[in-house]
């Protein structure tokens, strides 16, 4: 394959040397010279080809703006924004990036439905509601997170001792969130129906205020807000998500963006992977970084960081099946209006 880069005259010299080779200083010098020249020509040809590809990529991406939605509490995208490396990488590729902050996953995916963002990260429940509502999104990777990183809590002095005691009680959680699913599975495991509790659909900030004031009986919440209330207040866990919910996170992208710019999506996922490795190896640094962002003490954030897992992983059949179970559960209790198939919106481009 490499001989196509060599002129005919040079090929004749190489053939002659190989056919009439004698161990001599002249023969060795000539052979080395020829090999060196051959390698130089090949490297030059490959470099020219790579340069051409790079220029073509920059031209194709010229003027493209990658619009990312993020939540401050979603460590990786928040860190990716503040570290600034992604902007430099996209500039090299001919594109640029903008960021939009959201208080939770559902409004972020509403923005994706409106065509306002191209990429984001949420817990396991928001993409199910979004798919049922017709949002043109794709699952592009998942984050293992941890079932220990979400829980249903009550004040330490509460008479509520078990999940079964939540019958007739007011439980706060964000509608359509990962903790929404945790509540469903927890009450079912305790022998209750979802209709046996009084859901209070509140954002994390509003739920904490209601919980502290005693206006709700229990609160289902995820890290780092869970770690923060554990650090600041005397609370007791009724259960975490162990054996109830996988509590994964998902990287999601707008279908049209994936179709038009798969190279930029892969670049984005590569940069996310780099930040993931940094976060995995530096929980104390992550806590210090998030403290001013979230207004949560670093000591609490460090607890949250040490009990979670990071990753940018391709979706497996097992992961898709478990996500489908969540979708089926929400349909069964009429939280989503129609049955969906998660596998229909899974991107396979990151499998290698």
Automatic annotation (TrEMBL):
Give the protein name, as stated in the record: Putative aliphatic sulfonates-binding protein
Q: GO molecular function terms here?
A: ATPase-coupled transmembrane transporter activity
Please state which protein family the record places this protein in. Answer: Belongs to the bacterial solute-binding protein SsuA/TauA family.
Q: Provide this UniProt record's keywords sorted from A to Z.
A: Signal, Transport
Which is one Gene Ontology cellular component term of this protein?
periplasmic space
What function is annotated for this protein?
Answer: Part of a binding-protein-dependent transport system for aliphatic sulfonates. Putative binding protein.
Report domain Solute-binding protein family 3/N-terminal positions.
Answer: 65-282
Q: Which Gene3D superfamilies match?
A: Periplasmic binding protein-like II
Short name of one Pfam family: NMT1
| Compartments reported by the entry | Periplasm
Main location group: periplasm
Q: Report if keyword Signal is assigned.
A: yes
